[in-house]
């Protein structure tokens, strides 16, 4: 939600390019997402930041690249407004990011 709100605000109110808005939204949302998952979604007393943070960073960066590629494609080949396109893309990417986080990044052995 942080990613989406910041990106849409930057694009619609400050006229920042959609691609830069998406990137800045991701940067602001990453720490919120990490700590939210670490402490609420995938709470596990045994997991250490030194184990989970690098894994989640890889998951998040991979998800962002997929997000950006889908966003570029949809904005270049459709007339769907940015705010709708970003919402659709984020839903698609969120599923894979959640599953990868659950079964790999925050999984303890």
Provide an overview of this structure:
This protein is mainly alpha-helical. The chain has one domain (2-105). It is 82% helix and 0% strand. It is built from 4 helices and no strands. Helix 1 (2-13) runs antiparallel to helix 2, helix 2 (18-41) runs antiparallel to helix 3 and helix 3 runs antiparallel to helix 4. The protein is elongated. 28% of the residues are buried. The model has no long low-confidence stretch (mean pLDDT 93).
Helix content: over 70%
Evaluate the radius of gyration: 15 Å
The succession of helices and strands, N to C, reads HHHH
Q: What is the residue-mean pLDDT, rounded to a whole number?
A: 93
Shape: elongated
Structural class of the helices, strands and pairings? mainly alpha
Give the number of DSSP strands: 0
**Percent strand:** under 5%
Task: Quickly count the domains.
Answer: 1
What is the terminal separation in angstroms?
A: 30 Å
Largest sheet: none
Parts with pLDDT < 50 across at least 5 consecutive residues: none
Number of helices: 4
Summed up:
The chain is mainly α.
Q: SSE layout and pairings?
A:
Layout: H1 2-13, H2 18-41, H3 49-77, H4 82-105
What tags apply to this protein structure?
109 residues; 0% strand
